[in-house]
Amino acid sequence: MRAYYEKRAAEYDDWWLGAGRFEERERPGWYEDMSALIDMVLALTPARTLDLACGTGFLTRHLPGEVSGVDQSPSMIEIAAARRKDGAFEVGDALAPRPGFERIFSSHFYGHLDADQREAFLALPRDELVIVDSALRPESVAEDWQERVLDDGSTHSVYKRWFTAAGLLDEIGGGEVLHDGPWFVAVRSSIPRF
């Protein structure tokens, strides 16, 4: 999946914005749910935040406080750093412990992790954890390997999970639901890990 996300960097925001290959998709309520999700991110209390697998920084740019981001893709980091000039961005392993942050934020990363990776993710040092991911739609499965096609015609197998807000909250050990929409869910755990 590393090669896939590096190659996808230039077209990644098409998914958020309904452009390119996503222009023809029927996604009723998508833009309203995305706007509500952004409002939720903006309403977070300012904190020293580390955005794990920050991608292009689509949501990172809305995080209040002192923000750092890490992603394994140099191209994603380049886009994120241009978007959030006051942030600190680095290429690296999102599952490597980086102490010193009050909040770990992650958007659409947790749903790609296998069981061992999820355990490592949840053990990372932090005071607060905020996870944003894809909502489980009535017509979809909760877990799948998808064949994804990029604009250059290349195909890539990608592991993906979708969540109900309650299910995701239960999986991370409790906390609170921050957003429960038709396309996106967001949860917060305030159980410190040191």
Automatic annotation (TrEMBL):
Task: Give a single Pfam family match.
Answer: Methyltransf_25
**Gene Ontology process terms (BP):** methylation
InterPro entries noted in UniProt: Methyltransf_25, SAM-dependent_MTases_sf
Q: Any idea which UniProt keywords this protein has?
A: Methyltransferase, Transferase
Protein's UniProt keywords contain Ribonucleoprotein:
no
**Domain Methyltransferase, first and last residues per copy:** 50-123
GO MF annotation list: methyltransferase activity
Matching CDD domains, A to Z?
Answer: AdoMet_MTases
Enumerate the Gene3D superfamilies for this protein. Vaccinia Virus protein VP39
Q: Provide the protein name.
A: Methyltransferase domain-containing protein
